[in-house]
């Protein structure tokens, strides 16, 4: 069984080479390094028994960018004529993510034992998306693995780019919101209580607004840990509930009805659906299988149901556009363009155009939404601080008035 070895070597000029390689034994490592013109100085099997590191590695996420880089490098090496096993060896050596590296080592071993690359990738569904598994399978059958991997790289790069645009546009409003909440909590917890004793000494009747704020302040100071635990528990509970189909469907339908958020969510889902289906169809994956893969990646139950109906309709000889027209998940433009794509025999290209259009539209909507959210948050913060100020100042004015009247 192949193992991972770390090695150090030097060339004739004294330049040091440090790396790791998957090999059967130390002799195989030495032979590989000598082929590069280096002299071995140290070979050491990497420690596989670090349970703590392995535990934390399981929680390290695999980003779309990492998958895209992997596919791009893999495609380049296959196109250059490198054998599959050599490509996998290079990918293992070049990868810095322990979780992905471990998966690639397992894939290397399985492929060496005669299993197909696509099946080996499919054994790691949490790392390699189903679209990658299905397209690699189509590429292996058609002998076009290099072009399929290249298209996968482009697909993941575009999806990563769209996700990053959404994240970057919403990061600032999110930070401002958190800071606004922290400022209000600080005022209620540390600033407002300084006036409590003064009001108590004056034995005066406080306005309703002041009493409410003092009650909230007291609640935060006395029960802050319990409130925090309850908040975290509520979030975790909602996350668990969202896994249930009935609750998830309710949330998805509710999200789609929210004026701006619903429109944005629908456009993101359409862009993702169009890009994924286009990539699969272009790679030679049958449409029934392709729709099944898209259902797993779309993330919207309303659209997943429409795709399930489309699968059933296609089996009965009904066109994709016709089944889409029966659902409210797709816009009239999408239905029309899908119909044209089916009639012209260029559905994959038409879907790609739909994806390009909606990705651009999502970018514009997110930018506008971000510019609107920022002043709204600042305005709300101003109103809240204004209310707190008024709640403090009204009793203060009463005190000043009563004192001046004496």
Task: Summarize the structure in words.
The chain has 406 residues and is mostly helical. The protein has 3 domains: 3-48; 56-158, Type II secretion system (T2SS), domain F (Receptor-associated Protein, Up-down Bundle); 169-406, Type II secretion system (T2SS), domain F (Receptor-associated Protein), CATH 1.20.81. Helices cover 76% and strands 6% of the residues. The protein contains 17 helices and 3 strands. The chain has a 3-stranded antiparallel β-sheet with strand order 2-1-3. Mean pLDDT is 82; it is low at 49-56.
Summed up, the domain count is 3
Strand order of the largest sheet: 2-1-3
Main sheet attributes: strand count, strand direction, barrel closure: 3 strands, antiparallel
Shape by Cα distribution: flat
Radius of gyration: 30 Å
CA distance, first residue to last residue: 95 Å
Average pLDDT taken over every residue: 82
CATH superfamily of the largest domain: Type II secretion system (T2SS), domain F
CATH architecture of the largest domain: Up-down Bundle
* Tally of separate helices: 17
**Helical amount among residues, as a percent range?**
over 70%
Strand content: 5-15%
What is the CATH topology classification name of the largest domain?
Receptor-associated Protein
Assign the CATH class of the largest domain.
Mainly Alpha
Low-confidence stretches are 49-56
**Structure classification:** mainly alpha
Order of helices and strands: EEHEHHHHHHHHHHHHHHHH
Number of strands: 3
């Amino acid at each position: 069984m192949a193992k991972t070895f770390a090695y150090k070597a030097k060339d004739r000029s004294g330049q040091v080479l440090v790396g790791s390689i998957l090999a059967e034994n130390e002799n195989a490592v030495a032979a590989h390094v000598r082929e590069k013109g280096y002299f071995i100085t140290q070979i050491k099997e990497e420690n596989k028994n670090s349970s703590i590191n392995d535990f934390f590695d399981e929680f390290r996420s695999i980003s779309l960018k990492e998958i895209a880089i992997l596919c791009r490098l893999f495609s380049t090496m296959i196109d250059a004529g490198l054998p599959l096993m050599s490509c996998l060896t290079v990918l293992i050596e070049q990868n810095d993510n322990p979780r992905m590296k471990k998966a690639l080592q397992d894939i290397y071993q399985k492929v060496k034992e005669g299993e197909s690359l696509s099946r080996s990738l499919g054994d790691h569904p949490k790392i390699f998306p189903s679209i990658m598994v299905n397209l690699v399978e189509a590429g292996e059958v058609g002998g076009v693995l290099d072009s399929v991997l290249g298209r996968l790289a482009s697909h993941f790069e575009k999806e990563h780019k769209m996700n990053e645009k959404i994240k970057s546009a919403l990061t600032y409003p999110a930070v401002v919101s958190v800071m606004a909440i922290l400022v209000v909590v600080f005022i209620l917890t540390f600033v407002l209580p300084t006036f409590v004793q003064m009001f108590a000494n004056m034995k005066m009747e406080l306005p309703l607004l002041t009493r409410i704020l003092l009650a909230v302040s007291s609640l935060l100071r006395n029960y802050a840990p319990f409130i925090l635990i309850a908040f975290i528990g509520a979030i975790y509970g909602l996350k668990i509930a969202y896994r249930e189909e009935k609750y998830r469907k309710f949330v998805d339908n509710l999200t789609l009805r929210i004026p701006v958020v619903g429109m944005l969510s629908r456009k993101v889902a359409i862009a993702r659906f169009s890009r994924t289906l286009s990539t699969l169809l272009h790679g030679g994956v049958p449409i029934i299988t392709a729709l099944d893969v898209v259902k797993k990646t779309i993330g919207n139950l309303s659209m997943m149901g429409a795709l399930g109906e489309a699968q059933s309709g296609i089996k009965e000889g009904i066109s994709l556009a016709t089944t889409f027209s029966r659902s409210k998940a797709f816009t009239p433009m999408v239905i029309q363009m899908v119909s044209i794509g089916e009639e012209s025999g260029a559905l994959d290209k038409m879907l790609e155009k739909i994806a390009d259009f909606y990705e651009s539209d999502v970018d514009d909507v997110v930018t506008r939404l971000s510019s609107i959210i920022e002043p709204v948050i600042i305005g709300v913060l101003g109103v809240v601080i204004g209310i707190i100020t008024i709640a403090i100042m009204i009793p203060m004015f009463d005190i000043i008035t009563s004192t001046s009247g004496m």
